Amino acid sequence: MSTDPATDPASAYDLSHVDEVENLATFALLVDNEAGVLHRVVGLFAARGYNIESLTVAETDRKAHTSRITIVTRGAPHVLDQIEAQLSKVISVRRVHDVTRDPNGIERELALVKVRGTGQDRVEALRVSDIFRAKVIDTTSESFVFEITGAPGKIDSFVELMRPLGLVELSRTGVLSIERGATGM
Amino acid sequence: MTAPTTAPKPAGKFIAPAAPREMTGAEIVVQALVDQGVDTLFGYPGGAVLPIYDALFQDNETHGPRLQHILVRHEQGAAHAAEGYARSTGKPGVVLVTSGPGATNAITGIVDALMDSIPMVVFTGQVPTHLIGTDAFQEADTVGITRACTKHNYLVKDAADLPRIIHEAFHIATTGRPGPVLIDIPKDVQFARAAYQAPGEVTFSHGYAPRTRGDAARIAEAARMIAKARRPVFYTGGGVINAGPSASQALRTFAALTGAPVTSTLMGLGAFPAADPAWLGMVGMHGTFEANNAMHDCDVMVCIGARFDDRVTGRLDAFSPGSKKIHIDIDASSINKNVRVDVGIVGDAGSVLEDLIAAWKAEGLEANRAALDDWWRQIDGWRARQCLKYAPSTTAIKPQQAIERLYALTKDRDAYITTEVGQHQMWAAQFYRFQEPNRWMTSGGLGTMGYGLPAAVGVQLAHPDSLVIDIAGEASIQMCIQELSTAVQYGLPVKIFILNNEWMGMVRQWQQLLHGERYSQSYSESLPDFVKLAEAYGAVGIRCEDPAELDAKILEMIDTPRPVIFDCRVAKLENCLPMIPSGKAHNEMILPEEVEDLGSVIDEAGRKLV
Fold first, then answer.
1. Strands A167-172 and A105-116
2. How distant, in Å, are the alpha carbons of A164, B224, B600 from that of A161?
3. Which of B462, B529, B455 is nearest to B72 (CA)?
4. Strand B93-97, strand B120-126: pairing
5. Is B324 a catalytic residue?
6. How far is B2 from chain A (nearest CA, A)?
């Protein structure tokens, strides 16, 4: 925190910490599977001005009535701390795990990628998909739909390579995460 | 819920009472309120809550008035009255309103309770389950609307869930950082029959477990930091009040042990006695010169149950630049939210203070008395500036003088003070000297005009023999004036002490200082005759414009055993000072004698702030 009152800007609400870089962060939440629980989480992000880069949610334990939400956001370290603290306050949220800052965190995403092309581009698309271990799940004489899983960065790379080869459409699940090792969340 | 609402409960869930009492949903609500120790609820009937009102009526016939329902005149009044009741007793406030407009009208009070951490349970009626989502008459998505402004909320789809949900709601509202919890009950669920379970018989369905004991190692570290401090200051807040009277006691003990000066936020007034020599007065935008300078120049700041709100910190990048900061808060998300601290302790203010005292004694710590003497000399220098000084007049009542006299004439009585929002609120905070907790009810976080009168109704119900005064402005009081009718109906002798300067004073002050004296929409045109208004409601009206008559008329008000509106005509253009101008730091306060320059002190950036 600056101690020099001569420096501008002088806002009573100046919460910007200019020295801090924004990072992507993934939070895994275990929540009670009840009506409106997703709204509680998403509403918190909207109300406090946090970004949502991706979001996945599904029931994971029918008996315990819990769902898992994985949410990717962006912020400076102190903002990420605040997001974690705010999420932990929601009554329906049972656990919050910062996957990004956990060295044992694993993140995966699935994408469906539609590419249209003929001739050499078509051959090249198929060759690249092979390198990325993507699966062809639909094909016509002029198009492919690939299914690819991996870390978000790998999917980004695949999409960038497909773009000049005739990328038509992209559908991504958003990030899923889990921790390495024998113990659960 | 994803599970079918008719799904049978797992057998293990019932810790079978001797004879499971089956009753209607509405009767379950009433029984649960009784079992939760509720004696008073504030509400307004309507189509979607008629079964509960019927159950209340029948309970009253069978068991006598064990549950007193207070009929307000507007649902916002119900919520504020519940806040007043809660804040003056430490017990949760209970609200019962109908669907649609009943719920939406209550929302201002619910947000107010969330911002000021007031325990509250709100019951709203809802259209029958099969009509939800059809835009039915008086349907509103109450749980959707209130998700952002409650600590937690429920839509009850099965009467069998009601006992658990109600007991859970009371638990959540009153523990951890207190707040409002809302239960939305469709009309068919109020009619449906189900087994009742008492508080001890239900299994909570959530993982909610607030932490109340602070971390021992951090408490010990904090105690050592305080002992080493040369210029310590305690900055306390509403959390100390919420932690109960024993927390205020622990604060007094610990402050005496450490020899540190104490200041407080608006919400924390009364936790530390204003009569104590270590009391610096309130901190923040309209706090005292000595409190703000002590905050700016301290070397160790001990924040207890406060949250570094913008009204307190002023310009954040110049906030107490040279200090180590200790922050004790029951809400982990308050720590490092606005201001980064060196030691954060998550826990109940009372519990942590007691642990701090124990750690202080166990380690044989002693304050640095020589350094403290220097620190107190410096503080006395700030005090000598007499930042609250004002120029009395023989022709006009100064608003500060009105509060000073009100305090002088009520301090030996069993008095409770509520306020509306604006200049009068700040003058009340500056000039009414609170010695005990739970005596001061004000809308701090949300700043809700209209809070004070219904809050006073709630306070008076909880303390029927006490003197309850709503210090008001002529603009604020008109926002919930209808609750005077409630006061009259229940014979509640609340006193409404209006500092009538014919202006929305704080708005006028900011327009004078920041907007070139362009007084846009801030003059109170067409004011009612408050004396006649009081009489029209069946209350008593008193008017005072002469400083010489002020004392006699205040005494007349106090001695009137009925609701009173006191129309105190005060100097119209008085500004509330001292003041930290927008965008300035604690040590850049404007004192009354500098008021002529005030407009030039605030720069363009400051003008843009609220």
1. antiparallel
2. 7, 60, 60
3. B455
4. parallel
5. no
6. 7
pLDDT at B20: 72
Q: Shortest CB distance from B609 goes to which of A12, A34, A95?
A: A12
Report how far apart the first and last C-alpha atoms of chain B are (Å, whole number).
Answer: 42
Candidate from A2, A33, A40 with C-beta closest to B317:
A2
For B163, residues 6+ apart whose C-beta sits below 8 A from its C-beta are B28, B32, B194, B195, B196, B197, B198, B201, B202
Percent pLDDT > 90 in chain A is 85
Q: Do B144 and A36 touch (CB under 8 A)?
A: yes
Which residue's entry shows tokens 């709503």? B470
Residue B7 pLDDT > 60? no
pLDDT digit string, tens, across residues A90-117:
999 999 999 998 999 999 999 999 999 9
* Residue bearing tokens 């603009």: B475
pLDDT at B335 over 50: yes
State the average pLDDT over residues B204-233: 96
Q: Give φ, ψ of B280 to 5 degrees.
A: -100, -10
Q: Tokens 């907790």 map to which residue?
A: B437
Measured from the Cβ of residue B57, the count of other Cβ atoms closer than 10 Å reads 12
Query: In what side-by-side order are the strands of the sheet with B343-346?
Result: B279-282, B262-264, B232-236, B300-304, B324-329, B343-346
Our measurement of the distance from residue B182's CA atom to the centroid of its chain's CA atoms, rounded to an integer in Å, reads 18
String of DSSP letters for A111-135: EEEEEE--HHHHHHHHHHHHHTT-E
Contact B240, B265 (CB under 8 A): no
Residues in chain B closer than 8 A to A33 (CB atoms):
2
Distance CA A146, CA A125 (A): 10
Q: Which of B101-105, B208-212, B460-464, B590-594 has the lowest mean pLDDT?
A: B590-594
In the prediction, which pLDDT does B19 show? 63
CA A122 to chain centre: 30
> Burial level of B465, CB count in 10 A (0-12/13-18/19+)?
exposed
What's the mean pLDDT in A118-139?
97
The answer to whether B215 touches B222, Cβ cutoff 8 Å, is no
**pTM, entire model:** 0.93
- A92 → chain B, closest CA residue: B206
Rounded distance, CA B92 to CA B72, Å? 18
Task: State residue A90's pLDDT score.
Answer: 97
pLDDT of residue A19: 62
Question: Which whole number is the average pLDDT over B120-132?
Answer: 98
How far is the C-alpha of B10 from the C-alpha of B226, rounded, in Å? 53
pLDDT in tens, B539-569: 999 999 999 999 999 999 999 999 999 999 9
Sequence letter at residue B392: P
Q: Is residue B191 predicted with pLDDT exceeding 60? A: yes
Q: Is B22 a catalytic residue?
A: no
The letter for the amino acid at B489 is: Q
Give the type of residue at B131: L
Residue B335: closest C-alpha in chain A: A82
A137's tokens = 């799940």
**CB-based contacts of A74-79 (< 8 A; 24+ apart in sequence):** A74/A22, A74/A23, A74/A24, A74/A25, A75/A22, A75/A23, A75/A25, A75/A50, A75/A51, A76/A17, A76/A20, A76/A21, A76/A22, A76/A23, A77/A20, A77/A23, A78/A17, A78/A20, A78/B336, A78/B340, A79/A22, A79/A50
Q: How many residues does chain A have?
A: 185
DSSP character at residue B531: H
Specify the higher pLDDT residue, B468 or B513: B468
Return the pLDDT at B608. Answer: 74
Nearest CA to B473 among B495, B498, B449, B441? B498
